[in-house]
Amino acid sequence: MARFIHKEQSEITLDYVNLPDATSDTRQDGGGTAAVTGRKLYKLVAVSFGFLCILQAALNIYLRLSLVIEARCTNEADGLEKELIPFDRYFQEGWLYLRPSFYFISSGKKSWQESRADCLQRGADLVVINSREEQDFTRKFHKLTWIGLSEGETNGTWKWVDGTLLTESYWHPGEPNGFEGKLEDCVEIRFHEVENSWNDIPCRDQNFWICEKMIPL
């Protein structure tokens, strides 16, 4: 504020009291602004650094998951390839597939026992017919073929090579009959043109045969 002091009427003196120092205020204002700016910059750097840390952590997790998934897929692919190799070998050896089994049809003839021995050597056995679909499949080859059915020690009891008793049969009309008093203990597929195609004949007779190996795909 200004105060007027009258020393003489002809002389007026202005005495300024408590006026701010312009130089001092300018320096103080500049320092305050710089401090505020510094704090904002520090916060920005801190936030940016935190964001980078989060991003790095997320990237590390992603890379680890990618490696785990890749390793698992590789192992599964290797396992699948190992499983497919035997299947390819069966196809190359002339086996046919009807879910859930592979089938091998011989090119030569043998007795029932010899035919079964050949199937066992191949890791299979003479075919066991469990369904109408399988029955229709086995008679498409138009060969006299042994199947894995024979008469047990008890006369009239027919049993499959897997030990199960015959429940559903496809005998041709009039079969089994022991034709002309022969001991006909083994079964062949003879009448290919009809669904009921089975015929009983002596096990020592020579026939083609069908091996079956169950390998679910």
From TrEMBL:
Xref: InterPro entries: C-type_lectin-like, C-type_lectin-like/link_sf, C-type_lectin/snaclec_domain, C-type_lectin_CS, CD209-like_CTLD, CTDL_fold
Which SMART domains does this chain map to? CLECT
Superkingdom in the source lineage: Eukaryota
What are the transmembrane regions?
44-63
> What keywords are annotated for this sequence in UniProt?
Disulfide bond, Lectin, Membrane, Transmembrane, Transmembrane helix
Ranges for domain C-type lectin come to: 97-212
Show the GO MF annotations: carbohydrate binding
Q: Which PANTHER family does its entry note?
A: MANNOSE, PHOSPHOLIPASE, LECTIN RECEPTOR RELATED
- What is the name listed in the Swiss-Prot or TrEMBL entry for this protein? C-type lectin domain-containing protein
The record lists the organism as: Cyclopterus lumpus
